[in-house]
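My main concern about presentation is that the manuscript never shows what a single data entry looks like. For the editor and my fellow referees, an illustration may be useful. For illustration, here is how one protein appears when written out as sequence plus structure tokens:

***
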Amino acid sequence: MLKKELNFLTLCRKNNYSQKDLAVFKKAISFSKVHFKEKKLLSGEPAINRNISLGSILVKSKLFPEVVTAGLLYGLEKKALPEEIKEKFSREIFDLVSGQTQLKIIKSKNKTIEAETLRKILLTSLRDVRIVFIKLADKLDNLLNIKSFPLAERNHIAREVLEIYAPIANRFDLRYLKKHLEEEAFKIINPRKYKEISNFLKESKEERELFIKNFIKEIKDLLKGKVHVCEIKGREKSIYNIYKKITSRKKSLHKQQDHFAARIIVSSDEDCYNVLGILHQYYDSVPGTLDDYISQPKPNRYQSLHTLLQTKNKKEIEVQIRTQKMDDIAEEGVASHWSYKKSKTSKSNIQFEKKTAWLRSVLDLQNISRDKEFLKTIELNLFEDTFYCYTPEGKAIELPKKSTLLDFAYYIHQEIGNHATGGRINSVFSPLKKELNSGDVIEIITNKHQRPRRDWLKFVISSRAKKGICKGIRKHGDLPVSKSLSIKPKEKKTFENIVVSKEFPTSNFILAKCCSPLPKEELAGVIKSQKKILVHSKSCEKIKNIQDKAIPVFWKESFNMLIKIIVQASDRSGILADILNTISRESFIIKEVNAKLLSHDVAECFFVVVPQKLDNIVKLIEKIKHVRGVTKISFG
């Protein structure tokens, strides 16, 4: 066994991977050795060494065993038969390995797109976001072995890392990857400045980490019994972050004061100010560095108290004090670093930010959950109901599934749609009826003599485009559009009727939205048509005057099909993961998950579950009600 392989397995044990995981890792290394045979890297090392390095980076990042295994099999999608990988490992691991080819195709289609737009394309186009985690490890390995690359490639790789990959690592809180990607890339792009900052810091990494650890302990002791502290986070700022501060503030290195940072999370606004008062009594504060963003929030809703303190040993540390809600907004909302420093907070951008935040929280849950298997069966459709295409300038347009070039045109502007004659999809000319794919870059071609046509209604998908076409036909004097024109609803999955009536056994029962009855409330049915019965809670105001016409309806005691649970909640960091975890703990099998924003701070989450007995559902509903932020539960 290679020394590198032994070191890798030791690292896995230190990071608490199970014996079962280690057995799979060993099998992956052996499998890679066979298929790489005598292949060498540019450095002259055996090719298998690179895969073990990727595995080590993924282990240090504390990523899922499946991701580590796929890293150990990196590059084998072209050397081994797909069925061979699926048989020896799993379909999931094969998808992660072959996804690297998918990622290359996406990148090759979008060579001229700006970095921020490409990050969006990568996250919304990949069938499994974990594919990009393996690419992050690959990029870090490239940086660590950059001397083996031709000179022309070095700067290109480093810039790509800083612009595209490090921000993705940051978005998913992959701190090890983010920090090392930034540091190694910066070292290549600006070695002189890297050395200058590194020498200025003087102290070793270990000494700086010890300072943060001791400061946090000091703060905890100082606040104990005075203020309820939820959490204290601390970090030493990286060399690259210090460099960014120098360039953004236009201050020299020696005038930069906040090389260390701490964040104190408390229960209330009042506690924020109490903590600030206690800190200023105990430490000297640097004049002119207190910022109160609680009483005067930033335009993006960011709230926090900021102060720069001088510790007893004359070191300076920036301290942020905020509530959990403020931290949720800062970390996951429109005030996040990913969002507010780079993006305009359009509805499309906010939706994207929230979906990636929900996805991150679910991935975090999978990492810490005792039940490692329950998330594997979920169809997580956070990006499935819509997809993103882009203008040549990089503006993201969110479209319904199966949208066409003409749908895109009407999403840009009514008049662009009215005068559209065709377009270019990824620089290739295409007709208006051409169906789009996620990540496509679209340029619409117009002609001032073009007019909207009735036959356009046959191939557009979105209601926006259909309404735009109808409006355009009227405006340009064509024959009136028939009032009977119908927009076909999206195809819906069939779910279990969870209520029943002996008198109407074959009817379709719809739970009324006005009262959203829950088991085991008493029910009353109102006949709407021969096959449709609207089911209200017996106490619903809307049926008080027609109780004599209501038919008896009862909750089913057992079920034969899937059921859909809809949960409305105030949007916060981790809300989707918390509800998922609650459902899982009640031993329900979750088949599908989706979520959308109803407003800037209200989310609606959908869960398709394998049904159990009615008593189990009643117990589950009670548990979901107790999840922080949940405001309404109903059935679809």
Q: What stands out?
A: The radius of gyration is 28 Å.
